[in-house]
Amino acid sequence: MLAMIVRHRDDSGMTATTDVKPQAAAQRQPYDRAEVPTALGLGPAAFQDPDVQRFLHQGYLVIDQAIDQDTVIALRSALDGVASRRPGQEIIHSLLEEDDRFATLLEVPAVMSRLTAILGTCMQLHSATARITTSGHPDQDWHRDGPWPMDPVGVPYGGIPAQINCGFYLDIEPEMGAFVCLPGSHRAPFRPPKGHAPFPDEIHLVPRPGQAVLFDGWLFHRGGANRSNGVRRTCLMCYQHAWMKSRERFDGPRVAQLRATGTARTRLLLGGVSSW
Ligand SMILES: O=C(O)CCC(=O)C(=O)O
């Protein structure tokens, strides 16, 4: 940290100097600069990437073979452990604190490369969540993942809440409830309707175990009803610009351990820069 000498005119009109103390500057910077990337994005090539273009246009992207089958099996078993500790609970928050095995979802290479191309390098986790639905669970209502208004052209500094969710569907079959979404709705300057009435253009995705579904948090979406006799198990890793507020506080012991042993990117993802 450099000390700074500032020259200015004092009350008598003479030139005076003020020494700006490094401690004062350090107090204003409660984070490690090494965690802040020096370049925001991947450059113009990212704009040409067909995956990026598809995502921008449709609001979602299916990534094949994002995780291998051993990982799928390990995650199923980890989620079964969570379900037995929390019987009947549909949404499990702070998933990384539930079991060490969920940490494999934080920086899946095939997901990170797309996220970096779309969202840039200054990324933070918003939340890691599981959703478990059992037989007879009804349709989820249409929603966006955040409450903020969307307006792609109405604000000079941009009105796009940059948040991307990544769903890992561990064992989904059509009767268990598809991931239902309305392509292109992530740029609609209005909210989704109440309820879950079908849109003519909605699509039903039934991702295979191992695939990942990236979707813009502002895409109109919902989980389908579980009309099977099985359990539908999903992990949702949600990422956003590191300067946006996260849902999670990242203050649990497992996350602290991941930060202590991880790379600068891991620390940034897990709230290393907690305030500016
Ligand atoms: O279960 C799904 O397919 C989607 C879940 C979801 O969007 C949510 O819980 O917010």
Number of H- or I-type helical stretches? 7
SSE pattern, N- to C-terminal: EEHHHEHEHEEEEEEEHH
Name given to the CATH architecture of the largest domain: Sandwich
What composes the largest sheet?
6 strands, antiparallel
Helical fraction equals 10-25%
What is the overall shape? Answer: globular
What name does CATH use for the topology of the largest domain?
A: Jelly Rolls
Gyration radius (Cα, Å) is 22 Å
Q: Find the structural class using helix and strand composition.
A: alpha+beta
- How many domain regions? 2
User: What's the count of strands?
Assistant: 11
Strand content: 15-25%
Could you characterize the architecture of this molecule?
It is a single chain. With 276 residues, this protein is an alpha+beta fold. It has two domains: 1-29, no CATH class; 31-269, Jelly Rolls (Sandwich). Helices cover 23% and strands 22% of the residues. It starts with a strand and ends in a 7-residue tail after the last helix. Residues 1-13 have low confidence and may be disordered. The structure holds 2-oxoglutaric acid (AKG). Residues 131, 179, 221, 223, 234 line the site of 2-oxoglutaric acid (AKG). The site of 2-oxoglutaric acid has 5 residues, from strand 10.
